[in-house]
Amino acid sequence: MMLSSSRAAARLGVSLFSRLPVRLLEPPVVPYSGSTGPVAAHSALPATVQTAQEKWIKRFESENIPEPQTSITNIIAHVLQLDGPGDVGKHQNSSLNEMQMAKIEELCECRLARMPIQYIIREWDFRDLTLKMAPPVFIPRPETEELVELILQQMDTGEESSFLEIGCGSGAISLSILKHAPKASAIAIDQSRLACELTQENANSTGLADRLRIFRHKVIDDLPDALAGQKFDMIVSNPPYVPSVLLPTLDPEVKIYEDLRALDGGNDGLTVIKAILRVAGKHLAKDGVLWLEVDSTHPPVIEKFLTKHGELMGLRFLASYKDLFHKDRFVEIVKL
């Protein structure tokens, strides 16, 4: 099913399977100074937004960097502190001073090293939230925005409810749901300390921290002891689901910069998913719902698994839904 597009998807087009690097460059961002800045001394042509954009598009294309135009557009918007990449077109003839040119060069070198643009500019839009990004924490994709849209369409956002997110990463899913469900409360868990810290930072910056508790925990068979016996109206997860054997085939942005634990789903890609099913069987309230984002080959496998074992777990496969690429991507499971 097709759902509404997002600002994040617009920034990178429809592809967003890219990730991050090891060294982080943090010179101060130079505020946009209009057309009065000095021209970079090393350039024979006036240093303008347009010339910088054209130069780096050609360079990125020559080095086979994915999405060359969106990469440089986001970098320029970041350096000039514009409201967004859509504003770059309004400043094509604006001059760039030497510090701005140097900063653009520096960040473009990171992109040449296949660092994902999200880590280069240190933030990204997820639905209507702007979230901080930091390596190696998993970068949310446009497909995950569709998962949130599905959930909100079927959730009574005006009622009190509680939900659990397993594998929170940057906190994108939990925070987006909390923003649109003002009476909901959430618990988010992740095995990564950096992910938990980034989720907390994003919760603080979005003003949603008072309704979110975060635990560092690796889900194997159950939740942290502090949550023993707790029941939730909903559990949601975008878990690791890439088969281990396929990890070396991923894009450089992913395998160089991403925390592969957020991607590695074991031999068949289902190791973590089956652990989540066990947790859901214990911690979903009656008629509660488990939402999963999975590989497109997984929905029939999960349905078959629950047909065989679901009654013992108290779970029933309800439906699968397609993503914007028309691939089965999202699974809905109910607690009996």
Automatic annotation (TrEMBL):
One of its GO terms (cellular component) is mitochondrion. One of its GO terms (molecular function) is nucleic acid binding. GO terms for biological process: methylation. Keywords: Methyltransferase, S-adenosyl-L-methionine, Transferase. PROSITE patterns: N6_MTASE. The keyword Methyltransferase applies. Pfam families: MTS, PrmC_N. Residues 148-241 form the Methyltransferase small domain. It catalyses: L-glutaminyl-[peptide chain release factor] + S-adenosyl-L-methionine = N(5)-methyl-L-glutaminyl-[peptide chain release factor] + S-adenosyl-L-homocysteine + H(+). InterPro entries: DNA_methylase_N6_adenine_CS, HemK-like, N5-glutamine_MTase, PrmC_N, RF_methyltr_PrmC, SAM-dependent_MTases_sf, Small_mtfrase_dom. Its EC number is 2.1.1.297. Residues 52-121 form the Release factor glutamine methyltransferase N-terminal domain. This is peptide chain release factor N(5)-glutamine methyltransferase. It comes from Anopheles sinensis.
